[in-house]
Amino acid sequence: MADVPVRVEERLKIKIGEAKQLQPRSNLSSVTRDVYCTLSLDQEEIYRTKTAEKTLNPFFGEEYQFEVPRDFRYISIYLFDRDKHLKQNKVLGKVAIKREELASYNNRDHWFAIKPVDADSEVQGKVNIELKFTSSFQKHKNVTNYGRNDRLSVQVVKCLDLTLKNGACDPYAVACVTYTNRKTVSKRTKVRKKTTCPQFDEVLTFDAYEGKDGLCGDGEVEICELNVSIWHDAPGMGDNVFLGEVRVQLSGIQQQNAAPRNAWYFLQPRSAKNRPSFTYSTPPGTRLSQDNSLGSLRLQVQYNEDRVFPAEIYESLRSLLLKSVQTKPITSSAVYVLGEIISSKTEIAQPLVRIFMHHGQIVPIIKALADAEISMLTDPTTIFRGNTLVSKMMDEAMRLIGLQYLHKTLRPTIELIFNERKPCEIDPTRVRDSNTVQTNLNNLKTYVLKVFKAITQSAVHCPALMCQIFYNLKECAMKRFPENKEVRYSVISGFIFLRFFAPAILGPRLFDLTNEQIDNQINRTLTLISKTIQSLGNLVSCRSSQQVCKEEYMESLYKEFYTDTHVTAVRQFLEIISAISNPENRDNDTPVTLKEGLMIKRAQGRKRFGRKNFKQRYFKLTTHSLSYAKSKGKEALCQIPLSNILAVERLTEKSFKMKNMFQIVQDGRTLYVQAANCVEEKEWVDLLTKMCQTNQNRLNQYHPCAFINGKWSCCESFNELAPGCSKVSSTDSNNFHITLDPERELQRIHSLIISHMNQLEIIMCQPETFLKGILQFKTYGLQDVKDCFIVLRELRDVAVKIETKHNSYMRTLARDTKYGSLAAPIGDDNYLLASRMNLDSLLLRR
């Protein structure tokens, strides 16, 4: 297993709920605070919440999910107080969760104590240090006779992933040795400009006699400790900024006169004895604590780390899952059984949908599952109302298939709401002046009408795959409840309105409909519109507005839209999107915005003369082109058709000494772009690659470095038109906005089976009881029990087979990984803890 290529994929979803009992401000003008949070990978800010104003118990309720693009040690959530009068943001504290502890908080809310933030403990990164001891007899200064001299040679070879301070990093290293007589000697390297991954060529030497105190120092003096600290050179900020340090105990080592010792270390917070008197010590990670003096923060975390093997390892599991489409009855299939065993239906639905979409089987598997669920119901009003496997698979399928359709339909109105910022509050208990309610109601009606028209007039743009699924659902419901004339509409409206459009309106950032911060007023406007759209989806099955109206203040708004005209429009819309002969002549001439935001770009050299400097621009990616302008809403300065893009690849940091850069290769020129953070960089690269992967002239090779000073930095070629020296990234081709990765999804399913192995073993002992529970009132025979037992056994055997491969790989990895290597740096218990946990898990499985 040592030669098997294995990749590690990480996915994080975190919901920042609320904070409680924050400390009040000290000034008398206002004791409350305006609070917001930032979510960071180590010290790199990734997301920022809205600001909760005038409160010591702020509620955020914001959820973020992303693929983790790089290695990290901590997920940190910092709380800030925005002081409008002082025009500065003050950090209130933080919650930091160690990477190895994230999974222990999965799928449940947890309150974390907010800890103080200390600048000297805000460190990240690794450092590679090489030590060499030599001994010789020589006469040296201040010593009257010859004696043995122990010399320590220190080379700080390289650092990785240092912290940016105010957007810059000009690092240098300081090596300080402590002698047995407590004397210290320090030496430093030169400054390396504009890099978070500096390489130092200097060797710093320390002699034993340097530790002696003048002429009286005839006794033996040894070097007992080395402290290597990394600093950011900041002449304009007063003192230089601490970036981290490493302490190495050396007592007795110099006597061995051994070969050079080369090791990687995690940078650590500043030790207490090296701190100025006004600072205090805080560990970089935050564990649960009873000390809530700074308040507490409620978080919900979902972290998945998967080691993905090549496709052939998962072939048996893949075949077993795909066989579910032909299995009769579907209740004896692997997919259905997994939906009953796995407690979180969302967790199992997401990988299942991606696997079946990759193999073109998503329509038949959802149809089979829907048939089974609807056949067990006696009340048509309860169809898909619960969190069942098929309803969660529908949610995921609509999100994957229909994202561009969602953007085309809702984005114009969402942007209008953010631009106009008109108040729409109609609850009399929430407004100061009751005379404003009517004006607010008119504003709300305008927005709801725009959204309603956008949705009901968008039927011809609904993706054909979604239409096929809706058609099947309608046919299943009509077959089960032929006497109910409204079920043909309600079964579709329950998905398209309640579970597709309404959630996107309520949380536009989750669906990439906006990247702007959502303040309290806009959040309330979106909430009211979402509630109204949900109710409009029920128009086709309700006889009066009272049936959809729960709040008295909403009744007048509902009455405005409860007319025959609106009911007819909803029904026509539902009929079109659930028609199997849905027209294919989509209006592809209208571009749909997929992603937008501020980035920094380097001039492309379109002008013959002029400097190629870096400037901030507002980028917008649509289904047709990539463009950038000076700011949002301004006319595009440059527009690149997607068909002209030959490759989209990451750029190495050494090109411009800037992080999070990527390149967009066109015919004859290359656009270099810097994203705001590592997550943004990955999302832009992945989406652009996805949109351009079918271009006929796409490159096979590219240059991972830039063409600077007359040559390519990667291959040293002086020919600017020289073919690339590295192979471009490969992706799977499909018609969706993401790249499907079936092996990763199969590994996710395997992990879920392993985590539920106890439940599976119990059910195997009682398959008849299991069938009785899932089939409810339906009858079943002996053959059904046998089929159920067979699929349970197949799932167990396949999972055990794959787990055996994992165990073999982990044993090999633990054996071959050296403590102190780049993969397992010294200075943290991560490596030792992981090794111990892997050993314990292997023993338990035996």
From TrEMBL:
<dbReference type="GO" id="GO:0035556">
    <property type="term" value="P:intracellular signal transduction"/>
</dbReference>
<feature type="domain" description="C2">
    <location>
        <begin position="123"/>
        <end position="265"/>
    </location>
</feature>
<keyword id="KW-0862">Zinc</keyword>
<dbReference type="Pfam" id="PF00168">
    <property type="entry name" value="C2"/>
</dbReference>
<dbReference type="Pfam" id="PF00616">
    <property type="entry name" value="RasGAP"/>
</dbReference>
<keyword id="KW-0677">Repeat</keyword>
<dbReference type="InterPro" id="IPR011993">
    <property type="entry name" value="PH-like_dom_sf"/>
</dbReference>
<feature type="domain" description="Ras-GAP">
    <location>
        <begin position="344"/>
        <end position="538"/>
    </location>
</feature>
<keyword id="KW-0479">Metal-binding</keyword>
<keyword id="KW-0863">Zinc-finger</keyword>
<feature type="domain" description="PH">
    <location>
        <begin position="592"/>
        <end position="693"/>
    </location>
</feature>
<dbReference type="InterPro" id="IPR008936">
    <property type="entry name" value="Rho_GTPase_activation_prot"/>
</dbReference>
<dbReference type="Pfam" id="PF00169">
    <property type="entry name" value="PH"/>
</dbReference>
<dbReference type="InterPro" id="IPR039360">
    <property type="entry name" value="Ras_GTPase"/>
</dbReference>
<protein>
    <recommendedName>
        <fullName>Ras GTPase-activating protein 3</fullName>
    </recommendedName>
</protein>
<dbReference type="InterPro" id="IPR001849">
    <property type="entry name" value="PH_domain"/>
</dbReference>
<dbReference type="Pfam" id="PF00779">
    <property type="entry name" value="BTK"/>
</dbReference>
<dbReference type="GO" id="GO:0008270">
    <property type="term" value="F:zinc ion binding"/>
</dbReference>
<dbReference type="InterPro" id="IPR000008">
    <property type="entry name" value="C2_dom"/>
</dbReference>
<dbReference type="InterPro" id="IPR023152">
    <property type="entry name" value="RasGAP_CS"/>
</dbReference>
<dbReference type="GO" id="GO:0005096">
    <property type="term" value="F:GTPase activator activity"/>
</dbReference>
<dbReference type="InterPro" id="IPR001562">
    <property type="entry name" value="Znf_Btk_motif"/>
</dbReference>
<dbReference type="InterPro" id="IPR035892">
    <property type="entry name" value="C2_domain_sf"/>
</dbReference>
<keyword id="KW-0343">GTPase activation</keyword>
<feature type="domain" description="C2">
    <location>
        <begin position="1"/>
        <end position="112"/>
    </location>
</feature>
<dbReference type="InterPro" id="IPR001936">
    <property type="entry name" value="RasGAP_dom"/>
</dbReference>
